[in-house]
Amino acid sequence: MNEETTRYLVTLVVNGVVREAAVPARRLLSDFLRHDLGLTGTHVGCEHGVCGACTVLLDGEPVRSCLTFAVTVDGHEVTTVEGLAGDGELSPVQRAFTECHGLQCGFCTPGFLCAVTAFLRDNPAPTEEEALEAVSGNLCRCTGYQNIVKAVHRAAEIQAETQGRPEDRGGRA
């Protein structure tokens, strides 16, 4: 068997669900998510890790799925843009991008949403410079970034507002 026909079983948790598929060794995580699992929210732009459109969360950390082989994530947890919302409710980051018009064509948006979600988990009250730095690894050709940065700050506000509510901590209202 050659490298093209040899397949490896990859089992991981994607958006809270155990998923598996047999893939070639060189299958990219972006292709695995889109083609093998049918999760097309992850977009592929440059295929060189530069644009950030393919950003997903691997064990909670943002990674470029176009640079990551699927076989290397076996046994790990991946969150895609489809997994950010909970129980049909938009996440604070998704809500903020909507409220602040932080998207236009939407192609880059899934990568921004994943990257900003991880950023705000680690820095819940960013300065203007920190917010700008956080989104600088993702390219957008439509927005000029002003509303994206506004959305980062608005998401931080939404998260701060909801932290005190029991239903947002998994408890009862």
TrEMBL record:
Pfam families: Fer2 (PF00111), Fer2_2 (PF01799)
Domain of life per record: Bacteria
Signal peptide span: none
Keyword Metal-binding annotated: yes
PROSITE patterns assigned to the protein according to its UniProt record, in alphabetical order: 2FE2S_FER_1, 2FE2S_FER_2
Domain 2Fe-2S ferredoxin-type: 8-84
UniProt KW keywords: 2Fe-2S, Iron, Iron-sulfur, Metal-binding, Oxidoreductase
Protein name: (2Fe-2S)-binding protein
Organism name: Microtetraspora malaysiensis
